[in-house]
Write a structure and sequence with these properties.
Structural class: alpha/beta
Number of helices: 9
Distance between the termini: 20 Å
Order of helices and strands: EEHHHEEHEHEHHEHH
Radius of gyration: 18 Å
Shape: globular
Oligomer: single chain
Strand order of the largest sheet: 3-4-7-5-6
Number of strands: 7
């Protein structure tokens, strides 16, 4: 199979297809991977990682620590929310998982077929949140389902790959940066993501269906990051305990996505 690598300058930030690759010394790696995924399809790279994900759930080092403090999250199970899980399961959505009963569900990025969206609505899903942009988001909106994605949160260009990028390193190096609330800030967008998953974003009501292209690796990592930060006070610096959790999280993510 002959595959050509695109002639792209690596001197500045790069936007390749639907992903934003920040300027850094090793960005050639990211661009080449993006190009190969485009040529071969992302499933080419996910064969090994799908097996890794199953292994990750079984390994204790990937188990989130159990918090002993009362939950500070305002989210509550609502008796008004009821999702028809059997109907969702009948759609045979790849990597489908119930993350929080009647509130959060994840899986692969949907194809936005009218019948698929209608089934989601009938099952009780109110919003779709894309960890990668949906190119057919207008179809989602026209169906009556609310839509949002990481990239458009706060106009920050927050990217699915930021889960182990410079944003995370900044939070670990400077825990007080978690208090920032600047327009176009990736950290501000991260906090809005946490609020959205908590059910505190009135524009994106629960129940929410979310995911990346395949609903596997990045979906798992973003959900794990959400669980680390979901109860944190966004007006205070991160505690030393959370900084340690994030440092281990980034270490695991760097190791997991190395190829």
């Amino acid at each position: 199979m002959n595959i050509s690598v695109p002639n792209i300058s690596f001197r500045g930030d790069v936007v390749y297809k639907d992903r934003y690759i920040p300027h850094k010394q090793d960005n050639t790696h990211d661009i080449v991977r993006a190009h190969f995924e485009d040529q071969l399809g992302p499933y080419f790279f996910y064969l090994e990682q799908l097996a890794k994900e199953r292994e990750m759930f079984a390994l204790s080092k990937y188990t989130l620590p159990v918090s002993t403090k009362p939950s500070e999250s305002p989210m509550k199970q609502s008796t008004e929310l009821k999702v028809d899980v059997p109907l969702l399961e009948s759609l045979k959505i790849a990597s489908f998982k119930e993350r929080r009963k009647n509130e959060l569900y994840s899986g692969r990025q949907l194809c936005c077929k009218p019948e698929e969206l209608e089934a989601l609505k009938k099952a009780g899903i109110k919003s779709i949140f894309g960890l990668v942009p949906y190119f057919e988001k207008d179809s989602v909106i026209e169906s009556g389902i609310k839509y949002c994605d990481l990239f458009s949160l706060n106009n920050s260009r927050l990217c699915v790959f930021d889960v182990n990028g410079d944003m995370m390193k900044q939070l670990i190096k400077d825990p007080s940066s978690y208090t920032e609330d600047r327009p176009n800030s990736k950290i501000s967008a991260l906090k809005m993501f946490i609020k959205t998953m908590n059910g505190d974003n009135p524009d994106i009501p629960l129940p929410i269906y979310f995911g990346c292209h395949q609903g596997t690796d990045r979906t798992y990592m973003w959900y794990k990051l959400y669980n680390i930060l979901k109860d944190e006070d966004m007006n205070k610096p991160l505690s030393s305990e959370k900084v340690q959790e994030l440092a281990q999280f980034v270490h695991d993510a760097d190791d997991y996505f190395r190829w």
